[in-house]
Amino acid sequence: MKISLNNIGRRFNKEWIFKHISKEFVSGNSYAILGANGSGKSTLISILTGSLTPSEGEITYSDTANIPVESIYQHISLAAPYLELIETFTLKEMVNFHFKFKRFAYGVDAKNLISILGLGKSAHKEIKYFSSGMKQRTKLALAFCSDTQILFLDEPTSNLDVQGIKWYQELVADFTKDRLTIIGSNQIQEYEFCNQTIQMSDYK
Ligand SMILES: Nc1ncnc2c1ncn2[C@@H]1O[C@H](COP(=O)(O)OP(=O)(O)OP(=O)(O)O)[C@@H](O)[C@H]1O
């Protein structure tokens, strides 16, 4: 899988957030999109996931053939602060619902996903009663454990404690092989495994 950006720029009203990004993102690699608060990391991720259009430039997705932007959602997983879980579902219902649309990664099923999460005791608790860290773990586990070629993580360790960060790093080791992983971050512990970095300040 390859995502190609050709001279991409995005503005909101008259303010250009970034300009002239030309870059290829290729499976088997992990990319960290880095920059200060408000520098445009989440905006770039929204363009890469196909949920926001660029103001200028072209984005193309290709595997064995080109994939139209309207279909790319089938190939991606995303965990991000602005992506909400369904609060009235229990954890078990949330997992079952998510995997109506995505397949489980190799070797994972609903039962051991909840065990990977370490939330077996909360399987029948509604998400609205979860702490912010429990919600973040749930978002991450759903994204990592889906059988998708592209994994997007925006601020993946927000709300995680020290143990949670270690748990996140174990998921990275277990579930990013052969995938295209793209992380929006300004925390080293989230992206130190990435072999490529993109600095938003280079595109102002
Ligand atoms: N829908 C929108 N309308 C207007 N401005 C927007 C919109 N979305 C984002 N912006 C602006 O774009 C800029 C980049 O925001 P973005 O959320 O991409 O930054 P970020 O690098 O992800 O920040 P953070 O590290 O704080 O999450 C900010 O100035 C923000 O106000």
UniProtKB/TrEMBL annotation:
Q: Which residues form the ABC transporter domain?
A: 3-203
**Is Nucleotide-binding included in the keywords of this UniProt record?**
yes
Which Gene3D superfamilies does this entry report, sorted A to Z?
Answer: P-loop containing nucleotide triphosphate hydrolases
Superkingdom of the source species: Bacteria
Q: Which residues cross the membrane?
A: none
SMART domains per the UniProt record, alphabetical: AAA
A GO molecular function assigned to this protein is:
ATP hydrolysis activity
- Which Pfam families did the record assign? ABC_tran
Which keywords label this protein? ATP-binding, Nucleotide-binding, Transport
Q: What is this protein called?
A: ABC transporter ATP-binding protein
Q: What organism does the UniProt record list as the source?
A: Pedobacter changchengzhani
